[in-house]
Design brief:
Layout: H1 2-57, H2 82-88, E1 90-92, E2 95-100, H3 123-131, E3 134-138, H4 142-152, E4 166-182, E5 185-203, E6 216-222, E7 227-233, H5 240-252
Parallel strand pairs: 5-6
Antiparallel strand pairs: 1-4, 2-5, 3-4, 4-5, 6-7
């Protein structure tokens, strides 16, 4: 009887000894599968992020893109030579609000990197801004102003004069001396420089367009009338802020 019990116990131990390694193998396989699934998920997330970054950097397919990389506004219908505007146009006042004669334009800035969200990383846009030395904007819309500053690469004081609408004109590598206007054209004349940046403002009340439904052509030129760059901007009347304030008052009523 004792020998029979001993044999049974030994048999059970042998069975348990065989089962235990199998359990360890199964646990090991399960752990490895779990780790592999985790690695696959991480890899999928990395691929997803890289695809989004590429999307912010370049067009989805190889394509030729003319400058500017977005739809340019149309030129005014009637245009006069710059030299005629300098000699016969109205010489209008301007305020110099930024003057950095030693400023050197950076080739690349940290916030243009795609890891920053890609808002300013699109290569055609970056090339556009690098190609030009004249940029224009109204102090209308904080989001568009935010993009404007980050695209040109530095901060500009914004005043938002409630009595008048200012047009902000950024000129790289040019010392502005005069501003002239005729019809739907504005000529910003100055002396070319190797470095430097200036920001001037003019009031739209001094621009008396021949057609208020057309855009305004801003031209950067030498003092003797040779064009260096241009920008087209829609015409916004000088009473813009007055109308905005009136709309705000009506809402409050």
């Amino acid at each position: 009887m004792f020998r029979s019990c001993l044999l049974v116990i030994l048999s059970l131990l042998m069975v348990l000894g065989a089962i235990t390694p199998m359990s360890n193998v199964e646990a090991s396989v399960t752990t490895k599968n779990s780790e592999k699934e985790k690695e696959n998920e991480e890899l999928k997330e990395i691929i997803k992020k890289l695809r989004l970054r590429i999307k912010t950097l370049e067009p989805p397919e190889p394509v030729d893109i003319q400058d500017p990389p977005w739809r340019e506004l149309s030129f005014p219908a009637e245009l006069e030579p710059i030299s005629d505007i300098i000699h016969n146009g109205a010489n209008i006042p301007f305020d110099l609000i930024v003057n950095k004669p030693d400023y050197e334009r950076p080739a690349y800035e940290e916030h243009w990197h795609s890891l920053g969200g890609g808002r300013w990383s699109y290569v055609p846009d970056r090339i556009h801004y690098a190609l030009h030395r004249l940029f224009t904007n109204y102090d209308i819309g904080l989001s568009s102003w935010y993009d404007f500053e980050h695209n040109i690469g530095f901060s500009i004081p914004m005043f938002q004069d409630e009595e008048a609408l200012n047009l902000y004109i950024v000129t790289f590598q040019t010392e502005v001396t005069d501003v002239y206007t005729t019809g739907n054209q504005v000529v910003v004349a100055g002396n070319p420089k190797r470095n430097g940046v200036q920001v001037i403002t003019i009031t739209t009340a001094d621009i008396k367009p021949s057609d208020t439904e057309e855009n305004i052509l801003i031209q950067l030129s030498t003092r003797d009338g040779h064009e260096m760059d241009y920008s087209i901007i829609s015409y916004v009347p000088p009473d813009f802020w007055a109308k905005q304030n009136e709309k705000l008052k009506e809402r409050e009523r």
